[in-house]
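Please fill in the sequence for the structure shown.

STRUCTURE ENCODING:
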């Protein structure tokens, strides 16, 4: 038997969430910088790069003892949100001519 209760486990989850959000903020700064370097909306979406990232994090998940399926789905959702952010940053820098 353990003395740990649900509050202890949730405190641990909350601490992990603080780390995750801090790392998402760090990742966001790099993603926005990458978006500013790209020439058009297709380059922002970079579908080949998305698959590379997903392959890489599935391997990292295996090594770390995380479920690769959970990690892949988390990353696809996160990258989708980052693509929207990059597109809005890109659009503000170079308003679309509607032909991309
Ligand atoms: O690697 C890039 O080019 C990025 O902009 C980063 C990132 C990502 O979040 O991983 C975001 C948008 C692209 O679709 C591909 C990958």
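FILLED IN BY: designer on duty
SEQUENCE:
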């Amino acid at each position: 038997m353990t003395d740990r209760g649900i509050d202890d486990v949730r405190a641990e989850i909350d601490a992990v969430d603080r780390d995750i959000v801090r790392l998402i903020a760090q990742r966001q700064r790099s993603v926005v910088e990458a978006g500013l370097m790209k020439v058009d909306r297709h380059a922002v979406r970079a579908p080949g790069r998305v698959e590379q990232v997903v392959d890489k994090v599935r391997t990292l998940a295996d090594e770390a003892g995380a479920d690769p399926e959970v990690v892949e789905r988390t990353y696809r959702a996160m990258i989708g949100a980052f693509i929207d952010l990059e597109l809005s940053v890109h659009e503000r820098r170079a308003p679309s001519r509607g032909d991309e």
